[in-house]
Amino acid sequence: PKGNMAFAGKYEFEGDENYDEFVKKIGLPSDKIEMGRNCKIVTEVVQNGNDFTWTQHFPGGRTTTNTFTVGKEADMETFGGKKFKATVKIEDGKLVAEFPNYRHTAEICGGKLVEISTSSGVVYKRTSKKIA
Questions:
Q1: What is the 3-state secondary structure (H, E, C) of the chain?
Q2: Any idea where the Cytosolic fatty-acid binding proteins domain is (predicted)?
Q3: Between the chain's N and C termini, which has fewer beta carbons within 10 Å?
């Protein structure tokens, strides 16, 4: 695989673009929309070769963890808490996953974790800075 695949670390939410438009597009209920807006999510990534444990820590103590191996189907959980199966792939140094109603990519860019979710032409971008 090409690209800098060093995802391991802890990242804190720094900013996002198109949040409202995106979450409405994927049908997130309004209470979840409010909860997630400018949410200081801390993303923790443990990487061992192609094996990943990807944990998101939400303010208030809620966490979501997805464990996956690149190229193998895994049980995942969405933004809104829905369970589904996906196979995470690597394309040009990015992790790519097809969620039920959006496509998600993650890459390390200039030391930041940049995540992009696309649903029916709406592009949501979230940037997190490395804190550990």
A1: CCCCCCCCEEEEEEEEECHHHHHHHCCCCHHHHHHHCCCCCEEEEEEECCEEEEEEECCCCCEEEEEEECCCEEEEECCCCCEEEEECEEECCEEEEECCCCEEEEEEECCEEEEEEEECCEEEEEEEEECC
A2: 9-26
A3: C
Read off the amino acid at residue 83. K
Q: Which CATH class is domain 9-130?
A: mainly beta
> How far, in Å, are 13, 30, 115 from residue 34 at the CA level?
16, 6, 20
Length, in residues, of the chain: 132
DSSP secondary structure of 81-105: S-EEEEE-EEETTEEEEE-SS-EEE
pLDDT tens digits for range 47-82: 999 999 999 998 888 898 999 999 999 999 876 678
pLDDT range class, residue 29, cuts 50, 70, 90: confident
